[in-house]
Amino acid sequence: MAELFTYRKRIISTDDVNFLRQIIADNPDESRRALSLRVCRLWNWTQPNGALKDGVCRGLMLKLHREGYITLPPRKKAFTGGRQTKRKNAENLDIDQTPIISTVKQLQPIQFCQVRRTRHEKLCNSLIEQYHYLGYTQPVGEHLKYLVFAANRPIACFIFSSAPYSILHRDRFIGWSSDALEKNRHLLAYNSRFLLLPWIKVPHLASHLLGRCAKCISADWQAYYNHPVFWLETFVDTERFKGTCYKAANWIFLGNTSGRGKYNKTQKQLTSIKAMYGLPLVHDFRERLCHG
User: Fold this and answer.
1) What is the DSSP string of 60-107?
2) Number of other CB atoms surrounding residue 238 within 10 Å
3) pLDDT of res. 4
4) Is 125:193 a contact under the CB 8 Å cutoff?
5) Which of 58, 59, 148, 262 could disulfide-pair with 36, CB 3.0 to 4.6 Å?
């Protein structure tokens, strides 16, 4: 048995490749997804909440397919580049865009709804796609989505997903070792999207919603993934925003990125500078993250 590479903490060997070839040969009529689910069950490749790691397994099988180790069956549906090309546009949904000019107190009650895998998820995705400057992309790994309502009208959207790997400013602030990061990174959540709908004109609402979200997200994560989160983090584009709402919600400024981008091998700035902010959700977050 020869080791080929490590994929998401699993060592992939020539025996694994032979096993996958046999699975594909024994099930010639199954789709790529069906094969992935079958492999997840046979390998017991599951998330902490018991869900199969289908996305991770499909990524591995696609990598092996592209590198010539295995041959996957043809796609049953055309690849869309990760974006749902047929997703409904928010303009085609029944959304009341009458401006709301009010105060946080007058807007109450405000309702937070975790909408992943609910009837409201498409609405959340569609609103972000149309009104967030980055648009919508499917989160990778563990993630939750929130729609915020006032008087039965959506007013804001959040997406939190798995935190990125090693980040200098965050890791220095937490003070954990590389082993602790590897072991406990799942206890962090990354705020990848925050959208306040453009017709909502309510002073201090953004910081209020960030504070409300910080109070419920750990319990929601526990319910969905069988573990809590103790730390939130995000990046703010300094060319577009000042990060005022995060500061007002007691998020901590950790430092600015270099602007070189994730895959840039040079020392030149190629992207806008991002300010990084973090928020501990418990007072002993360092103890929990560094020692567990």
Assistant:
1) HHHHHHHTTS--PPPPSS---TTS-TTPPPGGGS------EE--HHHH
2) 15
3) 87
4) no
5) 58
* Distance in angstroms (rounded) separating the CA atoms of residues 122 and 50: 24
**234 to 49, 140, 150: CA distances (angstroms):** 25, 15, 25
SS3 for 37?
A: helix
Cβ 48 vs Cβ 222: under 8 Å: no
Domain layout of the chain by residue ranges = 3-66, 90-290
If you compute the radius of gyration of the chain from its CA atoms, what whole number of angstroms results?
21
- The CA-to-CA distance between both ends of the chain, in Å, stands at 35
Cα–Cα distance list, 1 to 40, 61, 96 (Å)? 21, 19, 62
CB 174 within 8 A of CB 231: yes
Q: pLDDT tens digits, residue range 124-169?
A: 999 999 999 999 998 978 999 999 999 999 999 999 999 988 899 9
What's the pLDDT score for residue 83?
Answer: 46
Residue 122 pLDDT: 94
Side chain identity at residue 261, one-letter code: G
Cα separation, 18 vs 38, whole angstroms:
15
Task: Specify the CATH architecture of the domain 90-290.
Answer: 3-Layer(aba) Sandwich (3.40)
The whole model's pTM is what? 0.75
Q: Return the percentage of the chain with pLDDT > 70, whole number.
A: 90
**Total number of residues shown for the chain:** 292
